[in-house]
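Following up on my earlier thread - several people asked me to post the actual chain instead of describing it. Fair enough. Here it is, all 460 residues.
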Amino acid sequence: MLLIFIRSAVPYRAWFECFNSDCKERYALTDIVYNCGKCGSLLQVVHDYDKIKETSGGHWMRLFDDRKRRNTWPYGSGVWKMKEWVCPAVDNDNIVSMYEGESNLFLAERLGKEIGVPDLWIKLCGNSHTGSFKDLGMTVLVSMVKQIISEGGDIRAVACASTGDTSAALAAYCAAAGIQSIVFLPKNKVSPEQLIQPIANGALVLALDTDFDGCMKIVQEVTSDSTIYLANSKNSLRIEGQKTVSMEIAQQFDWDIPDVIVIPGGNLGNVSALGKGFLLLEKVGIVSKRPRIVCAQAEMANPLYRYYKSGYTDYKPIQASPTFASAIQIGDPVSIDKAVSMLREFNGVVEHASEQELADACARGDRTGMYTCPHTGVALAALFKLVKRGEVEQGDRVVVISTAHGLKFSNFKLEYHKQALSHIKSHYANMPMELPADTDAVRKAIDERLSEKNQRPRAG
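Reply from S.P.:
Thanks for posting it. Predicted structure:
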């Protein structure tokens, strides 16, 4: 524990900086600001990388390995074990953490062999307190709000627009901190499991008769009142927590980097966060190679895919259509410029998936031991396409980011197996067999099903 104490005493610094390379205006992390006051561009969090690099990459690796899964506050968190690289401005007493992160990375051996990529791994970011990767960013944002309040800042509430997962994370972390949360949800467009989370955690829940983009427009207008703090990924504090996914993956591979990472994209903060984490590892000298980042979008909400196909020459926001992957049903993503910048850095690919493809991909993944949310289904469907086209090769080590737990979408999954999803053919349906309470009837049904399974061709 001596190593932890020594490194925590070093005065690391970070600040908001304009994303526009011609501007670079700076603001303190305790400032309530979301766009550059000089040019209007989005902000990013920038660290004193020279100070970070004064410590060797090997020393940082030993420090983070030493802190991993320990209970010395707050370093047992997968986010806060890397506090110096995430948000050094927050006092430990103001950190609001559920010991998020450290989610499992498992070898999806059976599915990998089926598709011809045996080195396939799934990063289960949904195995977190509120069931999604959004916890990683929200611990940082709410901790900073608590820090601002402790310094005399006047913040009455923290607000977000959401398609479900962001609202759950915000409500939980604010409840733990004793801060009021306000969530703007598109009415009747989130799952019951997602709706109940902010309700249970005491949020002021506003169900608006619009889509996510409409909610996002209104929450930005409401948070022009500086006493209501904006919690969407437009606030780049969230990105600082989410970038730890990259660093955690590297640590789980003994500080090695996979060849390809596939991640679902909606508002696109996660894409920029993923790249930012890998670039920091590179700056410190821990890694020397970059993965290829694949952003997967639902075909019904694919503005980045269309922009990518134009060679990034003709971006147009779209009206997103309803998709089973509701958390990424976004037609005008706030972080589009940041995401494109990272995709260029990482030789990135953008692919999309139809509703049929994502539904079947979910079920196919589940058949091999997963329990996938529809957004992970989008990522898997995109991977299947890339493998089929030869853009992902047999020898590649591939990681798919699973962004939320499948239990948040139980009705979607059940309706698939009941073959009740509109316009979807359930190729992997598996409903219970209803039988009389008779041993002979049960034995007969078992024999018939096992015989049928043995005759069935293997999935290709």
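The chain has 18 helices and 13 strands. That should answer part of your original question.
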